[in-house]
Amino acid sequence: LSKGTRNRHLAILKVLMAKAQEWGYVPSDPAREVRTERVGRKKPRPYRGEELTLLLSEMLDRHSAIATVYLETGLRRGELMKLLWSDVDLVEQVVTVRETKNEDDRVVPLSNTAQEILAERKREWEDERRRTKVVDPKVFGTLADIRQVIVRAMEKVNFDPDRRAWLRPIHSLRDTFITNLARNGIPLDRRMKLSGHRDPAMNLAYDASQESGHLQAPN
Length: 219
Hints:
mainly alpha, 10 helices
């Protein structure tokens, strides 16, 4: 388990044992003296341009389209899975991201590529709604979880094992988006708004990432 997961498990145990002692089930709290592990700040792990070219070519069109939306918007997996059509404005070419990790809504502009993909998805969605009479307000829903799709694509193209172990299949798409913002000289405050970061230090890490020579994602 990761440090973060171990810390969450420990936090639960601490509450349980503290209550067990308070209610007289145990004579002492053995978890009180156990400290949580220090978790370091996660470093960006963007894809390289040639890696994305290989992976996207191995995916079905619907999966590569979703991967491209991640690359063009920087949304987290949960954010894209929860994205509602009511929060997509194809005329103004923006999406409003709600229920974010830091609980702050943010507005993300759509590139022409992302706008075209979402417009095509909207046509498919409307056709499905007419045929099935079922109204699903989500743009992609669970279809946005393409982690296993990316893993299978890595297997097909004999992806470098070290890179495969280092990258995070979906989150690295977001890392690539933010790294490209840094590469293209987007000011820090703007990058923070687009990515939904509150801590400037977290976003500044992407400056070091782009300096390390990672290539841009296709636009």
